[in-house]
Description:
- By secondary structure, the protein is mostly helical.
- The chain contains twelve helices and no strands.
- Helix 10 packs parallel to helix 12.
- The longest helix has 15 residues, at 4-18.
Amino acid sequence: LGRTSAADLHWRRAHVAASASPEQIRFLGGYAERVGQTDQAELAYRSLVNNAAASRVAYEGLLRLAEKRRDVGAVRELLADMLKRWPKDNSVRNDFAYFNLLRGDDFVGSLETARDLVAQSPSNLAHRTTLALANLRLHNPSAALAAYENLNIPWDRAPSSHRAVYAAVLGQNGKVSEARTHASALPVENLRPEERALILQWQAP
């Protein structure tokens, strides 16, 4: 109705009313997220990050909000915080390495992490993708392509980010036709700006 001051007042009342119950704060954050009130959702999730029972859910909510903004820097900072809390969580380790690579940071450390993760879970495409991107960033395209060895990947059903890295790897290995086929089939609106940059030269003009 355009009554923003009244709306802000009601949101503040809702946060106060929910503050004693992590479950109610989670509900409030989820509701705010669903109706597009991202600032209110972030406020709710931020209030839960130090609650041991709800911190993981809170961080996952904050990650979703940062991803919707296509804010790779914010995602990377959240993952850094998560890694301090859950240093043995392989999904967090992989995502932190991947976002470091997207931002152009810590290529060698990310490569070491990816190698360790692939050794633990050879069939995990997310880990293979991080390994491929690390080698690509380190100007070793043949090693990047080798990261996909012994995998039977249904690329048409793979996540767009994985497909973008694979297209870039193909292109950097001289497989231009295949790279263009993969790149042109990607819904670029689903990609982060850094992932779009990986395939820019392989997209059809």
